[in-house]
Amino acid sequence: MLNSRVKRVLLLILAGCFVSTCGQIKEGGRTIGHTTRDVARKIGHTTRDVTREIGHGTRDAAKAVGEGVKNVVKPEAEDEN
Prior knowledge:
Layout: H1 4-80
């Protein structure tokens, strides 16, 4: 069939193909990993900002309701004295 020299040459060619393919796979993995990291970071920061705005809005609304109730109740309490 094949002598040992031909086998060695074929083995070297095959190894060269694997090495070049590994570099491409590694680069593709790096690209996917960095893209995933960047998207996850953007989602996390957006979620944090939205949650903060909801919290501040809720706080301000509760404060306004409390002030409104205090203003409504306070004049009645002063009239009784």
